[in-house]
Amino acid sequence: MVIVFAQQIEDVVELTWDDVTVTDDDVTVRLGKTEFALPSPLDEPFRHLAAEPDHDLTASHPNSNWVFRGYSPGQHIHGSSLRERLKVVFATRAARLGTLHELTKLGPVPVSADALGYHPSTIERHVVAAATTYAEYIAAARDQRMTS
């Protein structure tokens, strides 16, 4: 969710099974107002959690609706705990910002913001930053050609 959809850890840990639908054919996840179908292998973690939820064998989570159950009764996992688990694989903030940088190039600001669950001004800042970076690259490449 962080790498593919640029979701903040704090939003990921708050996912419930009302946001995620697992069927034999599809796994869909609702972010903001948009549902996304996850292709294989991206659907596998959700299929695994649906079949074998974390902390399901304890009395602290009877009939819990959290996708990522925490250690405290009835609570989801804390963002810091999930971030710590993921730290051995990737830096969550850098991955999210890199993904957001790329996703903002794919569509209009209101559509991207609505689909990803971000405020339009946040997406607008990333669009401007992406354009600035590209403009600086073009200027540097042009300057390089002129001096060569």
Task: Give your account of this protein's structure.
With 148 residues, the protein is mainly alpha-helical. The protein is 49% helix and 8% strand. It contains seven helices and three strands. A three-stranded antiparallel sheet has the order 1-2-3, with helices on one face. Helix 6 crosses helix 7. The longest helix is centred in the last third of the chain and has 28 residues. The N and C termini lie far apart (45 Å). The model has no long low-confidence stretch (mean pLDDT 84).
Core attributes:
single chain; about 150 residues; mainly alpha
Short description:
The chain is mainly alpha-helical and 148 residues long. The chain is built from seven helices and three strands. Helix 6 packs across helix 7.
Overall shape: it is: elongated
Task: Please bin the fraction of helical residues.
Answer: 40-55%
Mean pLDDT figure: 84
Strand content: 5-15%
Report Rg: 19 Å
Strand arrangement within the widest β-sheet reads 1-2-3
Query: What structural class should be given to the helix and strand makeup?
Result: mainly alpha
Biggest sheet statistics: 3 strands, antiparallel
Number of strands: 3
**First-residue to last-residue Cα separation:** 45 Å
Number of helical regions: 7
State the order of secondary-structure elements, H for helix, E for strand.
HHEEEHHHHH
User: Stretches where pLDDT falls below 50 for ≥5 residues?
Assistant: none
